[in-house]
Amino acid sequence: MVVELSDSLLGVGLAIVGAIAFSGQFLFVRLGTDGGDVSDAVLVVLFCNIALVAPPVLVLYPAPYGELFTPTSIAAFAGAGLVGMFVARLLMFKSIQEIGASLTSPVIASNVLFATVFAIAFLDERLTGVHLVGILLIVAGLAVVSWETAATTSPGQSIRETGATLVLPLAAAVCIGMEPIFVSIGLAEGTAILPGLTIMAIAGTIGFVGYLAITGSLRPFPIRTRATAWYVGAGVSTTAGFLAYFAALEVAPVVIVMPLLQLTPLIVAGLSMVFLPQRLERVTWRVGASALIVVIGATLVSLSG
Predict the structure, then answer these.
(1) Residue limits of the EamA domain (predicted)?
(2) What is the per-residue pLDDT across 100-147, written as a single tens digit (0 to 9) for each?
(3) How far apart are CA 101 and CA 281, in angstroms?
(4) Where are the domains of the chain?
């Protein structure tokens, strides 16, 4: 007997796989930036993305490869690469280095707020009452994160200083919330997952290298180091996450896919307790509570979608 999955159920499964894969990124980056450089982390992860997705495109799709794209899909995927793979990663990796993976991931999960607003504004998707309750729970989770950030990073800092600490992950969340809008536009043009992801990775790499050149920060980075090995791990895990995430967006709406990706904070908190030393991550009950609140909110959002 063959069990057929609905598109929505398949999208849910793929989104959960993406959340697990993206969780690895936080841990690998946290380990690598312990003595490593954030710019190196972004660059290595981008190179890994290209190395893992571009060759399969050349093998699986016939030439001429230009027929895989339309001008709109190229622009959309390039926009997603610049916003999500370049700007969001730079902000997120810096936040992981400064306040840790377990505190950064719940704040990053607030991207569902921005993704929902953008989806309603540009993709004609709808907001329900249960959806709104879920979003409010996510906001409550962020409040707990703010409290815990103040308690663990600099106990004597003011509320304004605590808010400034969270600017990096919040800005990254805004960028990540914009990304699926671009991706959905590209997919609607008929461009497949792998070619689209390749354009994203190339655009993100070009944008980041250009940024390094303009700021005078472009330099060779050490290859045979422990930090680079962790960054490669982050690159592999993010590529797997993006493939699952793209596939989910092909079969399910943004308001279902994006909230389920927010399982990541809970997974990160659990993995941090098991695999990361306490000098890098101090996972308290408040960190776990904030992650759980975010996950509950994200679940309500996905169910209402």
Answers:
(1) 10-146, 167-302
(2) 887 788 788 777 777 777 777 776 667 677 777 777 787 777 666 666
(3) 7
(4) 25-304
